[in-house]
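BUG: 3D viewer hangs when loading the predicted structure for this chain

Environment: internal workstation, default settings.
Expected: structure renders.
Actual: progress bar stalls at 90%.

Input used:
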Amino acid sequence: MSGGILTKADQAAEAMKLNADSILELGLIDEIIAEPLGGAHRNYDQVSSNLSKVILKNLDELTSCQLMF
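Structure tokens produced before the viewer hung:
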């Protein structure tokens, strides 16, 4: 039964364009952070490394911007 629910949820998400590629294309996010093979829950160290790199890169970009008030 839960398989049917997941399938319907997946279909609904696809119909609403709720996936990383679509959201990126719409400009709602700046980038997609790669997950390790098998999913984030299988390799915490890799996830931590990926997140750290992206956060530091974006923080560097943001801190170099001039704020105008």
